[in-house]
Amino acid sequence: MSELEPGKILLLASWALLLLAGCSSSDRSYCPVAQTGYRNALGEVNQTLGRYASCVGRSSVVVDCAAEFDQLQSAQSNLDKSVSDVREYCAGNE
Prior knowledge:
mainly alpha
């Protein structure tokens, strides 16, 4: 089992706060939490993209970068969720 990175822990905690609060989409007080989640998710994408690019760059026929690609897809999914959260909780705050 892999360890959770600090960025993932903070992202998951941010989402948990949003879920536990049961707040409506008009509750803009959760905007800072959503923005923090977005920044963490963006950092996660940058990290995993770097690892994937590094793997592909050193790749040969025998090197398999599937694990790095799976991590990148997961990070992108987290980023998509974070963008949705920012849109919902920070509407009109741009």
